[in-house]
């Protein structure tokens, strides 16, 4: 190769994805971006390590799950069957038929009372002290009634 030919060569710097060694690739063709025509031969190109992407995804996922749990308030939820039984018992405590409007209002109060009670007692405490759960639930029902 003559000196003139060497001057015409473009050098593309690439890092080996296996060992990380920087390599100077000489080319007689100028390598350009297919979109903007920018000369790509004077920059160094590296493969981003997969670990960075994985850590970023894990962190975002963990933060997202923490926020989602807080937003949905699922840390202190009772088993679905138990929640259903509590609300159903509350709703059907009247011995006489009620209008749909009264039923809907009472439904909101029963769910409100359950939500407030869940914040003050976890499910293990409910199993250990069912009478305390009932006492708190009734107090919370009255609070929800006062607030509505």
Describe the 3D structure.
Helix 3 (80-91) crosses helix 4 and helix 4 packs across helix 6 (130-147). The protein has a three-stranded mixed sheet, with no helix packed on it. The radius of gyration is 33 Å and the shape is rod-shaped. The protein is mainly α and 148 residues long. The chain has two domains: 3-48, no CATH class; 72-147, no CATH class. Helix content is 58%, strand content 9%. The N and C termini lie far apart (90 Å). The protein has six helices and three strands. The relative contact order is 0.08.
Tags for this entry?
3-stranded mixed sheet; mainly alpha; disordered N terminus; 6 helices
Structural class: mainly alpha
Taking the alpha carbons of the first and last residues, their distance comes to: 90 Å
Q: Strands of the biggest beta sheet: in what spatial order?
A: 2-1-3
Unreliably modeled segments = 1-6
Shape: rod-shaped
Q: Which range best describes the helical content: under 10%, 10-25%, 25-40%, 40-55%, 55-70% or over 70%?
A: 55-70%
- Major sheet details: 3 strands, mixed
Question: Beta fraction of the residues?
Answer: 5-15%
Tally the helices: what do you get?
Answer: 6
* Average of the residue pLDDT scores: 77
DSSP E strands, number: 3
Radius of gyration: 33 Å
Query: What is the number of independent domains?
Result: 2
Q: Provide the succession of SSEs.
A: HEEEHHHHH
């Amino acid at each position: 190769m003559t000196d003139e030919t060497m001057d015409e060569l473009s050098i593309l710097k690439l890092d080996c994805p296996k060992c990380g060694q920087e390599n100077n690739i000489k080319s007689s063709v100028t390598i350009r971006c297919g979109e903007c025509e920018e000369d790509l031969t004077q920059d160094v190109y590296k493969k981003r390590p997969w670990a960075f992407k994985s850590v970023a995804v894990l962190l975002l996922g963990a933060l997202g799950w923490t926020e989602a749990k807080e937003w949905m308030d699922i840390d202190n939820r009772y088993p679905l069957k138990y929640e259903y039984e509590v609300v159903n018992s509350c709703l059907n405590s009247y011995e006489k038929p009620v209008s749909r409007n009264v039923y809907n209002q009472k439904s909101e109060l029963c769910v409100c009372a359950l939500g407030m009670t869940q914040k003050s007692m976890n499910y293990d405490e409910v199993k250990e002290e069912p009478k305390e759960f009932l006492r708190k639930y009734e107090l919370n029902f009255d609070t929800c009634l006062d607030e509505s």
